[in-house]
Design goal:
Jelly Rolls; 5-stranded antiparallel sheet; globular; mainly beta; 9 strands
């Protein structure tokens, strides 16, 4: 089965950061299903540092929620981590963006460095129905 759901980029792959920051605003108003799979991919790090990535929502792409609407667990290593973002109960959220914080401790340079990216893909309704049905059989 071909996947016709397009991937949206919250943070381009291999973006190098040394301080906190924000990705670009991504319009989700036209999404047919308001459930998204967000993937954090960390390609490069240095030792003794941490990366916190969270997702914020907005009605207009300018004013953002005071608190994140989703967050990845704090990360210390390279790899990929998925996060399900369900906006079905938040119809006022028309835009989302990633925000990151970096922290470094220990010996060596005090400046943290990460190379990472964040993508977002709409989860098709049929996949959600299948997953829900399977979860019910396991419960």
């Amino acid at each position: 089965m071909a996947n016709s759901v397009s991937e949206r980029i919250l943070v381009p792959a291999d973006t190098r950061v040394t301080a906190k920051g924000d990705g670009t605003a991504v319009d989700v108003a036209g999404a047919s299903n308001r459930v998204f799979l967000i993937t954090l991919s960390i390609a490069k790090i240095i030792e003794q540092e941490a990366l916190d990535v969270s997702i914020y929502g907005s009605a207009d792409g300018a004013a953002w929620t005071p608190k994140s609407i989703a967050a990845f667990p704090q990360q210390f290593y390279t790899g990929e981590w998925p996060l399900l973002l369900d906006l079905s109960a938040q119809p006022d959220v028309k835009f989302v963006r990633a925000h990151w914080e970096v922290n470094r401790w220990g010996r060596g340079t005090e400046t943290p460095m990460f190379e990472f990216g964040v993508t977002m893909r709409e989860v098709p309704p049929e996949i959600l129905r299948e997953a829900t049905a399977e979860a019910r059989t396991l419960a």
